[in-house]
Amino acid sequence: MSRVQRRRDRRRQELVHLARQIIARKGISGLTVQDVTEAADMAVGSFYTYFPSKEALLEAAIWEDLQRLGDPDNPAVQDLPLDQRRQAQLHQTFAFVEAHRELMQAVFGPGGSPEQLERGMALLERRVREGIAKTTPLPESVIEWMAPLLSGLIAGGIRYLLAHPEVSAAEMAARTVSLLRPIQAQLASPGRGPDAASSAPEEPSSTPSQPA
Q: CATH: 1.10.10.60, 2.60.40.3410, 1.10.3720.10, 2.60.120.260. Which one for 3-62?
């Protein structure tokens, strides 16, 4: 990579960093090209040599790093036993929240954009779906309902962590795993395999019993 390209990449990353700071202060709706260029001491026209639009900058500021969230193919956890792998993946997810608190507030926080929240939830569900498919023999019919259920649980953990900075990523991961273990045990137990898990329980009869 040439010196010119390295300098350009550093300048681009500076704009991304400044955009994240502005989002942290003003929210996504408060991000403007003028604010970013003033903070960077850059002419507005020069901004468009790095990004074609404010939306492109917003995409980079939020989603370039967020795409790594909960990646099931992370080589750091591939050789761990299943239970430890799940806790390690959750710890990585919650550690990402700790390291990018302002960014995650913009997506999952109460004042965030509904559009960004929807994208964040879709990403979590996709990661959970990929993780279940790679580590269990469950059929697609079970994964279909389990993925949104578990991703909602993880999203709740993210929001709790954002609201409670005194709670560590490791503690949040341990709490989440403790909730997941009974589900895993139930699916693995005799008579409660994937087919049983995907079937709805029978409703009790509403007909009162007749006296003998």
A: 1.10.10.60
